[in-house]
Amino acid sequence: MEVKFNVRRYDPESTDTVAHFQEYQMDMDASSTVLDGLIRIREEIDGTLSLRCSCRSAICGSCAVKVNGEAGLACNTKIVDSLSENGNTITVEPAGNLPVIKDLVVDFQPFWEKIRAVEPWLQPEGEEPETEYLAPDEDMLHLAGVVSCILCGACVSDCTVMEVDSNFLGPAALAKSYRFVGDPRDDSAQQRFKTLNESGGVWDCTRCMKCVEVCPKGVAPMDRIMALREQVMESGYTNTNGARHANEFTNSVKHSGWLDEKKLVIKSFGIFNIKAMIGLIPLVIRSQRAGKVPPIFHKSIPGVENVRRIFEKVETKK
Amino acid sequence: MLDHDILIIGAGLAGMRAALSAKELGADVAVVSKVHPVRSHSSAAQGGINAALTDRGDDWRDHAYDTIKGSDFLGDQDAIALMCEEAGSEVIAMEHMGAIFNRDEEGRLGTRAFGGQREARTFFVADFTGQALLHVLYEQILKAGALVYEEWFVLSLIVRDGKCGGAVMMDIRSGKIEVVRAKAVILATGGLGRVFEPSTNAMICTGDGMSLGYRAGASLMDMEMVQYHPTTLKGSGVLISEAARGEGAYLLNSENDRFMLKYAPEFKELASRDVVSRCEQTEINEGRGLDGCVLLDLRHLGEKYISERLSQIRELAMDFANVDMVKEPVPIMPGMHYQMGGVKASVDGETSVPGLYAAGEVACVSVHGGNRLGANSLLDTLVFGRRSGVHAAEMVKSTQHLNVDESAADDDKNNIQKLLANGKNESFGQIRLDMGTAMKEHFGVFRDENSMREGIEKIESVKKRAEDVYVTDKGSTFNTNLLFTLELGFMLECAESIAVSAADRTESRGAHTRTDLPDRDDENWLKHILVSQNKDGGHDLSYKDVVITDWEPVVRQY
Q1: Cβ under 8 Å to B: A residues 119-178
Q2: I need a labelling partner for A97 at 20 to 30 A (CA). Which of B6, B73, B81, B143 fits?
Q3: Is B372 a catalytic residue?
Q4: CB-based burial, B253-291: b 16+ in 10 Å, e otherwise
């Protein structure tokens, strides 16, 4: 079939220093992959196209790009699944949230720095056993679901928080951290929690699900971040905006059956956090204009006892 | 100019293991890799790593014998014994560093069966063992704060008076060329799969280290021994782990017949790889294949078992062949997978060039001989990576830098200028494809005199055309077009050394199967073939007897 590749090009050495799209048309097998197409462009049409790729079987993590606006591995994205509705065009762009070096090649340095920041190595205490550490198979199988992360950066590319906050550790690094927190051989969870609880850590995720959607290996980074939040709170770190937000959210719904947004904001930031309170004023004004200010008196919903019963059930189950 | 005690080229398992062991001994170590360490091809190893753990009732001597028999008695028995004896501590070391490994009911390391072995002694992380181990070593590199030149490409080794004193390398990102002076250089660049088309190997496996070593004066050994893996996916040639058969999968022909029962009544589907690949090819050649393939049937293992232990290959078969192995058999064929040969190295990694070491697939210690057992390659990288690092770290303590200056990069700079200015019109892609196809056709599963001669001619003509290759990209930023052209030069040298070694071996042994000479000839050929470059730029062949210690060669049956 005829396929049109619309590839975003950028060459820092060119006089035209702005990125632009270039079209390549080829006859391709529908079952072949986007990477097959890019390699053919490189080998048969235009040798100046730069991209990273190596294994061609979704294990080395080199070829994460955006296909039609969404991050994924070019090597396991099929042509037939990527065609636009109104024609046979496939748009390929470099991964997002990382600076572009040339064409589809991005600078991974910020990515590796964040991985490094979570101290991603096993930190056991005490003397090493003579043979292996004993560890339950089910724990290891559970960890295998995170260890299978190939560090391709697809999650980071499409993370909606990293787009606006470069301080956020991001889904890949946090999933990596979870891998050690969840390891029965690792004794540094408390230390790790401290870092995870800081600004840029687990509380900065907005739960948009994007990382779960785009991960080519089913690592589900956001689920790991949520699990870390729980563990961070259970270990006693309850005095942060994030932890207070989570607690008050739960309390509010448990108490009245719905969310008391005023109280949530005040409890999360802390009433004596004058700077944050003043900072909220423009938001309140905008909300008022839009008619979205919550009622002054927060009333329970009818049948709130049913909500409480759900809470009781969940809590006893734990 | 940069200075280091030890420069390690390649950041896969062998390279990073070498770096860690050398750094532990206090040496100033730097690793250079043309890709980021976690992108290395070690990540593609699926099935596991072999070790005979004595506390499990296994014996390293049994592992050694299985390896020797697997090698079709071409492996050097002293080296094999050493590797198998050190296997257990190496696996435990990886576990202590953080590798998760599947466990048994008591929480100890669990094993699975693998080909050519009488015991289940393969330790594994689901079906992505290589990736899991590679990431653990990278974690340790970060912990140790070891220096890695990421995405730098090595252009040549520096040799003075027959000794290796460093390397010339290029920053892929900027095109900048640097001279690195080093008292020891360790080649850990992996294999050469891209010399063949198709291959299970990654696109980065272009035989760089073998060619760099060869050009520096080191000998290549056992180059004719090229492994065809029995289970690669129809069409794409993507690897389907031997773990599938280890866990109990059957091989079926078009008549729904489990044909391995006939060829290998004892080991069946788990005979060694060269044997199974030959049987499959025979079935296909005799008309009992399906569209150039046979079938791998896992249906009886059940969905739960498959998703717990073979999840990755299930995904791969779905993604790349549209087959769900839980429901249907998978069409597979033999595919080029591994180079048993490489730069001749001692058990401490020393090559014939002082100062130059080699470890992992790039090296030939000869622990694999004529055929490597599945799950012995990860072991090879770790044991010999570590030993090379240790030996080099000791050696540099009493060694001075050679007299090397910036001018060491002149030849490479000129060569690149020449390549960029070349006005001819051959495309590297077409040349590589023609080379790969010729290698498959003439040096694949079955070989014979006439076909190999034809193959050698084809490689010569392809080599001639490569002189006229046109580099489209003239820039210096991430110029992959230029890199491929340089890699093509490496690959052609590897192709040639495979071809001349294969044509020289007038018998059938291990992966080298000649239809015109089907028998093993122990009287004349219990020896390795070595290829080295002579003064005129041509090659010389020489021989080295196989080291036989406790295990006399016998007829090989599975």
Answers
A1: 119-122, 124, 128, 131-137, 140-141, 143-144, 147-148, 150-151
A2: B143
A3: no
A4: beeeeebbeebbeebbbbbbbbbbbbbbbbbbeeebbee
